[in-house]
Specification:
It is a single chain. By secondary structure, the protein is of the alpha/beta class. It has one domain: 3-Layer(aba) Sandwich (Rossmann fold), CATH 3.40.50.11550. The protein has helices at residues 2-17, 34-40, 56-73, 89-96, 102-108, 119-127, 139-148, 158-161, 176-184, 188-210, and strands at 23-26, 31-32, 46-51, 77-85, 132-136, 217-223, 245-252, 265-269. It has an 8-stranded mixed beta sheet. A hairpin with a 4-residue loop joins strand 1 (23-26) and strand 2 (31-32). Helix 2 packs across helix 3 (56-73) and helix 7 (139-148) packs antiparallel against helix 10 (188-210). The protein is globular. The relative contact order is 0.21.
Length: 279
């Protein structure tokens, strides 16, 4: 009963936010709508949505896009999420098949603290048989890289490595978003921080490519930093034709017009945003 109540509360909460007018800009700084994004997705295979975690309007737009993209692409649509780690994919699949109930799924899939924000996405996908792909590297391995360096991955078991992206990773440490991380800590600490971020990006890119054959379209949801400046995840998708990728980002509305060119579409958040729940 508690799970059902939570689901109903979450759906109602998102329905309330759906009355808000979203402040979306295209790459030229022109006003846009969710419908414009769906139109732009017509010939795309990969729709990458970089969100601000816990921001209500970002989650509102994600759900709207999932619904409209499903209407557009039908059973060709796949949903990928950073919020689930690769080794919980069997649990996701069991839930989709009805082999386990909602309580078991949510207790064992290592859901985020703000899972109420994502539950409407997950439940819509499940109800409409949209495959859900867990794309993030298991946190324990990113943490191991941060503390012990990238070489630790080579010592992991065959079972562990099945949940990792192909090794060795080729990381472009010259990317602006990675240089910032590296400069935070001197010496090997900065390099470890860079690689712990890169293993997440590489994992997401690998799972996106693995589960999006040419006859499928994926909507992928992740933190905005993972595709900031069209880097991160995209740096591990160089085999993909850029014309097949549509990027959406989320930023605070601080009057910096230059940020609009960072993605095909930008959702601007008021400087005092309304949160559903902090992550």
């Amino acid at each position: 009963m508690r799970i059902i109540t939570c689901i109903l509360f979450s759906v109602c909460l998102h329905a309330a936010y759906a009355q808000q007018v979203l402040n979306i800009k295209n790459a030229k700084g022109e006003a846009a709508t969710a419908e414009d994004i769906v139109v732009a997705a017509q010939d795309k295979q990969f729709i990458l949505f970089g969100e601000m975690h816990g921001e209500a309007t970002a989650h509102q737009l994600e759900l709207t896009l999932l619904q409209q993209l499903h209407h557009k692409f039908g059973d060709k649509l796949v949903l990928g999420m950073e919020m689930f780690e690769t080794d919980v994919q069997p649990i996701v699949d069991e839930y989709w098949k009805g082999q386990i109930n909602t309580r078991s799924f949510e207790s064992e899939a290592r859901i985020w603290n703000n899972y109420a924000d994502y539950r409407p996405l997950v439940e819509f996908a499940k109800a409409h048989a949209i495959p859900l792909i867990a794309t993030n590297v298991p946190r324990r391995y990113a943490n191991a890289v941060y503390h012990q360096g990238i070489g630790i991955l080579d010592s992991l078991s065959d079972y562990a490595q099945k949940w990792l992206p192909p090794l060795p990773m080729v990381v472009d440490s010259t990317l602006a978003s990675y240089r910032v991380l590296k400069d935070m800590i001197p010496g090997h600490g900065g390099e470890n921080m860079l690689n712990s971020q890169a293993i997440k990006d590489a994992s997401m890119a690998h799972r996106i490519l693995l589960h999006t054959p040419t006859d499928r379209v994926m909507l992928h949801v992740h933190g905005a930093y993972h595709t900031k400046n069209r880097e991160g995840i995209l740096s591990f998708m160089k085999s993909v034709d850029p014309d097949k990728v549509l990027t959406i980002t989320t930023i605070p509305d601080e009057g910096d017009d230059t940020l609009w060119s960072e993605a095909d579409f930008t959702l601007l958040i008021p400087t005092t945003p309304t949160k559903l729940k902090e992550n």
